[in-house]
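Before any further analysis, we paired sequence with structure tokens, yielding the entry below:
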Amino acid sequence: MTLALVSALPEELQAVLDLLPDEQRIAVGGRAFWHGHLHGQAVVAVLSGIGKVAAATTAALLLERFQASAIVMTGVAGGLGPGVKVGDVVVARELLQHDMDASPIFPRHEMPGYGRSRFAADAAWADRLVRASEATLRDPQASLGPDAVATFQLQAPRVHQGLLISGDRFVSRTAESQALQTELPDALAVDMESAAMAQVCANFARPFAVLRTISDRADDAAHVDFPRFLTQVASRYSAAVVERLLGASA
């Protein structure tokens, strides 16, 4: 049984690879997959690639070539829901592609051939992610250090659970963010890959779960130092959560 650990960005992947004592690189389909073990669990770690097509290709390779028993993804996202702030974590319970529109043949957001617009995350793996995330966020200074907490004003970070939406564009304007909030009022956050991976996992009947660290509010006020946030917050959160996910405390 091999668990797939998917990172959205190189900094997060490196933080996960640093946990593996025996990783070996395997190149397939223009991607580098890293096979190893963590706490006795066989894992394969990889970058998702940016956008839905890249993420779907990666998921298909993980499930077909590496026979992954489940896919767990980490990354960053823009916050949409009320109270979802920078430094919080969103664990998806449902996923939707906000830019899917085959209307008027199908209702907006509905995936042709599926009869639905939303794909459920695996409940058991999502529960494990919630527990691991809550343990990590309980003492952010232990995972991040006091400088990062102070720099990004990470006061009492929270874990949110619910709808995560994905699309092939980076949402960074207030008008677009507000339009998404109006159209999908229960959406907590937006990214560019997760819903595509969820669809592929549904095709293969394999579990999928994802957490996203909120790096900005997906609007005009998003002035976060993104590279620094990745190295000092998101990647450290990812490593700490993965460690707890597969460790004795998960």
Observations:
- The mean pLDDT is 92.
- The helical segments are 10-17, 52-64, 123-137, 140-144, 146-151, 174-183, 194-204, 226-246.
